Amino acid sequence: MSQESSHQRPDFGRETALRGPFVFFFVAALVWLLAASALGLIAALKLWMPSFLNCEWLTYGRVTVVQKNLFIYGWATNALLAVNLWLLSRLTSFEFRNGWIAVFGGLVWNATLIYGVQQIFAGFLNGFSLLEMPREVGPVLAIAFLLAGFWPVVAFARRPSGHTFAAQWYVVGASFLFPIFYLIAQLLVLWCPASGVVQALVASWFVQNLLQLWLAASALGIAYYFIPKVLERPLAGYYLATVGFWTFFLFAGWTAPATLLGSPIPVWIQSVGVVAMVMSIVPIIITAINFHGTFAQNGGWANAWNSTSLRWVALGTISFTFVGLLRAIFYTRGYSAIIRFTEFYQGLDHLLVYGFVTMVIFGAAYFILPRVTGALWPSVKLIHVHFWSVTLALIVSTLVSLYGGYQTGLDLSKGAPQMIGGGKAHVLTAAAFLLGHAAFALNALGLIFRGLTSAENRQHD
Amino acid sequence: MKNLNLFLIGLFAAVAFPFGALIVSSQVQLGALGRAPAEEGGPLFPPREPGLAIQGRAVYLQLGCVACHTQQVRPAGMGSDIARGWGARPSVARDYVLQSQVLIGDHRFGPDLANVGARLTEAQLHEHLRAPSSVVAGSAMPAYEYLYQPKANGWAPTDRAVALVAYLKSLRQDYASPEAKLKQ
Q1: Taking Cα atoms as reference points, which of A215, A108, A89, A203 lies closest to residue A153?
Q2: Residue B156: which H helix or E strand, with range?
Q3: Number of domains chain A is built from
């Protein structure tokens, strides 16, 4: 593995203004990543051994809810706020003068998250996925996001030239839409609840928007930037990117009812969801042409494998294509009848949120952090530990969830008396994730510390 | 893509159209649903929740039970819920019209609870909560011992356990509704 981001002393002139906000968001993200990983291990242990840490504060229901919220709103969102900010500043030559506003928004975001998590542990939680935090949290998080995460839209509006890139479209789209669908979901689920099962439909609409239009869209922006940047070549079939972008955003919001097949909602709505889920294959194919087509040219895969940052992005894009195809196939009625409510669909979400979004964030971090801090990665060994532990854990945990979930569904349809859940494999993979994340956090914090101390020394000189 | 206003309008429309078509139309279609008799002049269903069950619903939420249990019976052909005896008929939207927060869930590590009140007695529910593995060997459910207090001849449920069981007993979809008749 070459260390292009480690051995090349980066230019950190333009990055100076971004250093404070970027480092703030990324350190916060690392803290939440470690917390979520530890809770993931505890949750896996509790499924394997139900008597493990059996007290009311740490019921499986609370631990797993906090783990998911910390991973999405703590790790992924903080990290994407940091990377999106850097990306749009790079692409638009936006001079970021008001970093304190973003940092203030980030402080409010993370303080509110701490409050929300503490409330969940205390037993004040709601029953809808990723909307479990108490309702007073929602509006505060939305305002904090506007302060911290709206800057890509501002940078896009103030760009000096008219030309735009696919990476910008995705990041601006994600940053613009998140507060809209987050507030609508909060309103219709927690503040003025919709009637009966419509709440469940709103909640699933929110989850699909969150996964696709915030997390995946931001990660697509990162992939569209880094692949041509690191490989130093144009994207294959780039003329298709516009179609890919609009079909991705158009179909995502319609896919929610496909996750509710068999639920007591109108059948025509379920059918619309299935059609949208199958149609979502269009942007999957286009992004596959753009990404994999570029990797396939002139030894691109080998170059990606030898790059500290791009190998993560390459693995992430493979996950994205794979999960997109699986979603189009397995969110149909025949398969849903067998595997709904099993861990199969959790495996698909895991592949999207971790296999794609998180892997791409890791790749971006290996590229950006040295440039922003002006320091080098302290340990190559820790980079290897990070890569191999999380990659193997991702492959094993995904296979176990997909195969195990499908097998559970088949067993249940044949009248098996007991649900099958958890198992040793999930404990081992959760431990491997924690190990990899600890290695990454140690390395990143060491790099940030080096960068900050050398910056101070430069100032004194 | 170059015109920011048009770009943002397009993005907004991409979220607004599915919201309008899926959610607003669902609210229009289902928002007026209320309690109804299965036959003219019959009792209204779903029944109102007793006060103790409302307290028990809060305990159900506090303990995070929704992470492992659903409350929806799928129709025949969309899973084996009815064949497994988890309900006498599929759940319909009307079953949930009185619930302030619908807890239909999206994952099952344990059985569906939409009709658990018709399947298990209070004593069975208490036993299952206090020591699940004594009821189902190898159960993945933890023992909620902290909801019970030891006494001379065994265990006494706390007020929260009583409320939780009252809530679970209130979960019944064993009545006919205009949309889903019970099979004779």
Answers
A1: A89
A2: strand B154-157
A3: 1
Distance between CA A58 and CA A121 in Å, rounded? 7
Contact B61 A340 (CB under 8 A): no
Count the neighbouring beta carbons within 10 Å of the beta carbon of residue A278: 17
Mutation pick from A245, A341, A412 vs chain B, by most beta carbons of B within 10 Å, is A341
How does pLDDT run along chain A (461 residues), one tens digit per residue?
444 444 444 444 556 778 889 999 999 999 999 999 999 999 999 999 999 999 999 999 999 999 999 999 999 999 999 999 999 888 887 777 888 999 999 999 999 999 999 999 999 999 999 999 999 999 999 999 999 999 889 888 888 777 889 999 999 999 999 999 999 999 999 999 998 999 999 999 999 999 999 999 999 999 999 999 999 999 999 999 999 999 999 999 999 999 999 999 999 999 999 999 999 999 999 999 999 999 999 899 999 999 999 999 999 999 999 999 999 999 999 999 999 999 999 999 999 999 999 999 999 999 999 999 989 999 999 999 999 999 999 999 999 999 999 999 998 888 776 555 558 899 999 999 999 999 999 999 999 999 888 866 666 65
Which of B99, B108, B145 lies nearest to residue A419, judging by beta carbons?
A: B108
| Residues whose CB falls within 8 Å of the CB of residue A191, separated by 6 or more in sequence, listed in order | A135, A138
Q: Are B30 and A195 in contact (CB < 8 Å)?
A: yes
Exposed, middle or buried: residue A99 (CB in 10 Å: 0-12, 13-18, 19+)?
A: middle
Nearest to A253 by CA among A173, A345, A333, A148: A173
Distance from CA of B18 to the nearest CA of A (A): 5
In this complex, do B75 and A61 lie within 8 Å of one another by their Cβ atoms? no
Which candidate, A456, A454, A459, places its Cα nearest to that of A375?
Answer: A454
Interface of A with B in 25-54 (CB under 8 A): 46-47, 50-51, 54
Indicate which CATH number applies to the domain containing A268: 1.20.210.10
The three-state secondary structure class of B78 is coil
Radius of gyration for chain A, computed over Cα atoms and rounded to the nearest angstrom: 21
Cβ distance of A59 and B139 shorter than 8 Å: no
Closest CA in chain B for residue A62: B64
Q: What is the C-alpha separation between A426 and A439, in angstroms, rounded?
A: 20
A261 touching B (Cβ < 8 Å): yes
Task: Provide the CATH number for the domain formed by B34-170 in this structure.
Answer: 1.10.760.10
Which of B2, B12, B17, B19 has the most A C-beta neighbours within 10 Å, making it the best mutation to test the interface with A? Answer: B19
Structure tokens at A378: 């302290």
Of the candidates A62, A123, A263, which has its C-beta nearest B104's C-beta?
A: A263
The CA R_g of chain B, rounded to the nearest whole Å, is 21
Q: Where are the domains of chain B?
A: 1-32, 34-170
A300: containing domain: 4-460
Can you tell me which residue has the tokens 């703590």? A74
Q: Which two tokens stand for residue A263?
A: 């639920």
Among all residues of chain A, which has the CA nearest to that of B89?
A: A264
